[in-house]
């Protein structure tokens, strides 16, 4: 039953949202791909090599950003309109689908976000708890999974995916969104999932 409700919600969103237009339109006078001969590194004595340059007018980028703002506004309105009990059921259904998936069960390292309820994101709390339990009933860590969550590093929204072992590893950032502290309780830098092997 919940799956049919979820499918219906997806269909409704598809009806109100325009088709994605993330890619620029086909070549036109305002958007073109051109091949030019340029010297390598701009050195006058270097032999020329082919370089591909792409020029996109500011108008095209402005239009893409405008469409993105409109799309986000429509999605926010749709999310606000969802009944809280229905939202909770759908969040549970999504988490169940993920936790029952073979890829999830076999994964040893996972990346996830910490839900920000103000942004009306899908609740991930049950999944996070499941990942962080890490031990079987006999106390062994044979089924351990590593969890990496995002930390915004600067005003340009550069992120790192840092390992946490407990929800206590999280602190609120300036926007009141939970993210991992840069160091663990022992003062050691956290493992960055983007740099790990």
TrEMBL record:
<dbReference type="InterPro" id="IPR024185">
    <property type="entry name" value="FTHF_cligase-like_sf"/>
</dbReference>
<dbReference type="Pfam" id="PF01812">
    <property type="entry name" value="5-FTHF_cyc-lig"/>
</dbReference>
<dbReference type="InterPro" id="IPR002698">
    <property type="entry name" value="FTHF_cligase"/>
</dbReference>
<keyword id="KW-0547">Nucleotide-binding</keyword>
<dbReference type="InterPro" id="IPR037171">
    <property type="entry name" value="NagB/RpiA_transferase-like"/>
</dbReference>
<keyword id="KW-0067">ATP-binding</keyword>
<comment type="similarity">
    <text>Belongs to the 5-formyltetrahydrofolate cyclo-ligase family.</text>
</comment>
<protein>
    <recommendedName>
        <fullName>5-formyltetrahydrofolate cyclo-ligase</fullName>
        <ecNumber>6.3.3.2</ecNumber>
    </recommendedName>
</protein>
